[in-house]
UniProtKB/TrEMBL annotation:
The keyword Amino-acid biosynthesis applies. Keywords: Amino-acid biosynthesis, Branched-chain amino acid biosynthesis, Isoleucine biosynthesis, Transferase. GO terms for molecular function: (R)-citramalate synthase activity; 2-isopropylmalate synthase activity. Residues 10-273 form the Pyruvate carboxyltransferase domain. Its EC number is 2.3.3.21. This is Citramalate synthase. The lineage of its organism: Bacteria, Bacillati, Bacillota, Clostridia, Eubacteriales. Belongs to the alpha-IPM synthase/homocitrate synthase family. InterPro entries: 2-isopropylmalate_synth_dimer, AIPM/Hcit_synth_CS, Aldolase_TIM, Citramal_synthase, LeuA/HCS_post-cat, LeuA_allosteric_dom_sf, PYR_CT. Coiled coil: none annotated.
Length: 528
């Protein structure tokens, strides 16, 4: 059954590749953008604002290359501005390059706040209206679908509502398919957004109207929601909320919010179930750290830690979950910590013993052992690989696939890039392997040596990689005698898990975490 039948349709205009790329630390190469366009097909029919032709060589190259693709659902939009003050559209390098991009949809922005017209453009209010009117008309006459971004609309509407509305009128009268109301500074409150949208709806009664909101007050999603409730039919935003300053409206949150909590149809149910994986893809593509606390798509979104909460949710998920995690492609996680009760432990153990009961003495044994280890410095929330190894040992289902007979690590800081050497001796069955390896630092050298010694026995180690290494001093007052916690993250394909080591010796803690990582990789992919 189609859950979207009878709901009001909201279109999505994705500006991750343009607005999102303006975020600090975010970068997309031409190949990244092409990969993005191919992958976003799974999100269904939407607009993708891919860049500003002429702004830089990368965007120029992208619009040349993207014409070789044949996306069936995605409509590529080019972004730019109106022509310049005292310039005709026919002579505008900006507009001509927009046309040359080959994009069938062109979005141009123009000023709708009189302060910007006076202090930034240094033009008259009438000249700004001419720029909007003639630029839109020129592009429309060239057969393009034109959207008009009313930049700073909400600030302009608050200070000079008549002029802000005249800017919208200029674009619509010139043939723009849609006006997009922009909270460019991200400082408007929800009621101010609602008032600004209602004014446009009453004045022009448009069939289509867009909203483009920045997150400088932490309200971008909320402001987009009230805009839709006031009549907007298109949401603009970026995946994971990427963007300049505090970012843009987060599509990863906004799409499921509208579709699951409101009477709106945004994407197909199939696309909605892929939002979590797509959000992670965007983060990886941009080389940005994924925010695990994001609503809907973060690993923490459906993570439960308190024992009473876990006990309740296992009886009825509605007690502490506002929706089924599978609806957005996410999953429930039962966290294990010193706050865990038997329900937490049992849920985790049932992954290996599905018929285990709460009264089983191994459940209580596991609970007390985990709490004792966390008291000594372990933290299993971020080290689920080590946690699962521990539980397997407690129920007698794990036997180490290899034995470390000996290891030594040397480090010479002035030696060069490969400044460390590790020598390891391991035993697999009746066979022993003795190997030395160089590395960039002692931990890298040890990790490389262990993998080289074991990969012929366990080929999966050739496909796994260490992707993160974190060290925390638990009590700095003890100086160099302090207890150190090391967590390493390992990846095979798209699956990532953490393992942990704790010691007063940072190399010993690192070795413990690395050995758990290797043991869990082998058990999961070679033994399980």
């Amino acid at each position: 059954m189609n859950q979207n039948q009878g709901k009001k349709k909201i279109t999505v205009y994705d500006t991750t590749l343009r607005d999102g790329a303006q975020g600090e630390g975010i970068h997309f190469s031409t190949q990244d953008k092409l990969s993005y366009v191919k992958r976003i097909e799974e999100m269904g029919s939407l607009y993708v604002e891919a860049g500003w032709p002429g702004a830089n060589p990368r965007d120029e190259e992208f619009f040349q290359q993207v014409q070789k693709l044949t996306p069936s659902k995605v409509r590529i939009a080019a972004f730019g501005s109106t022509c310049k003050v005292n310039e005709s559209p026919e002579q505008s390098d900006i507009l001509l390059k927009l046309l040359a991009s080959g994009a069938e949809t062109i979005t141009i922005f123009g000023k709708s706040w009189d302060l910007h017209v006076r202090d930034v453009l240094r033009a008259t209010l009438e000249e700004n209206l001419r720029l909007i009117r003639e630029s839109v008309s020129f592009l429309v006459n060239q057969g393009r679908e034109v959207f008009f971004d009313a930049e700073h609309y909400f600030d302009g509407f608050k200070e000079n509502p008549d002029y802000a509305l005249k800017c919208i009128a200029a674009a619509l009268d010139a043939g723009a398919v849609m006006a997009i109301l922009c909270d460019t500074n991200g400082g408007s409150l929800p009621e101010e957004i609602a008032q600004g949208v209602r004014a446009v709806m009453q004045e022009f009664k448009p069939q289509e109207l867009g909203i483009h909101v920045h997150n400088d007050s932490g309200l971008a999603v909320a402001n987009s929601l009230v805009a839709v409730e006031a009549g907007v039919t298109q949401i603009q935003g970026t995946w994971n909320g990427f963007g300049e300053r505090c970012g843009n409206a987060n599509l990863s949150t906004l799409i499921p919010l509208l579709q699951l909590k409101g009477e709106y149809s945004v994407v197909s149910d199939s696309a909605l179930s892929k939002i979590t994986s797509f959000s992670r893809f965007v983060a990886e593509l941009s080389n940005a750290t994924f925010d695990e606390k994001q609503p809907y798509v973060g690993r923490s979104a459906f993570a439960h830690k308190a024992g009473m909460h876990v006990d309740a949710i296992l009886k009825n998920q509605r007690t502490f979950e506002h929706m089924d995690p599978a609806g957005v492609g996410n999953e429930r996680r039962i966290l294990i910590s010193d706050q865990a009760g038997k329900a937490n432990i049992l849920e985790r153990l049932r992954r290996f013993e599905p018929t285990m009961l709460k009264e089983d003495p191994l459940v209580e044994k596991a609970m007390f052992e985990i709490k004792a280890m966390e008291h000594s410095g372990f933290q299993f929330e971020a080290a689920e690989g080590s946690l699962d190894l521990l539980l397997l040992q407690i129920i007698g289902k794990f036997s180490p696939p290899f034995e470390v007979l000996d290891y030594h690590v040397w480090s010479e800081p002035f030696r060069g890039e490969l400044d460390s050497v590790a020598v390891v001796k391991v035993k697999v069955g009746s066979e022993s392997v003795h190997i030395a390896s160089e590395g960039n630092g002692p931990v890298n050298a040890l990790d490389t040596a262990l993998r080289q010694a074991l990969v012929s026995f366990f080929p999966i180690l050739g496909k796994s990689e260490l992707v993160n290494y974190k060290v925390r001093v638990l009590d700095g007052s003890l100086g160099t005698e302090a207890i150190v916690r090391v967590i390493v993250d390992t990846r095979v394909g798209r699956e990532v898990w953490g393992t942990i080591g704790v010691s007063t010796n940072i190399l010993k803690a690192s070795a413990q975490a690395l050995l758990d990582a290797i043991n869990w990789t082998i058990w999961k992919f070679e033994i399980e």
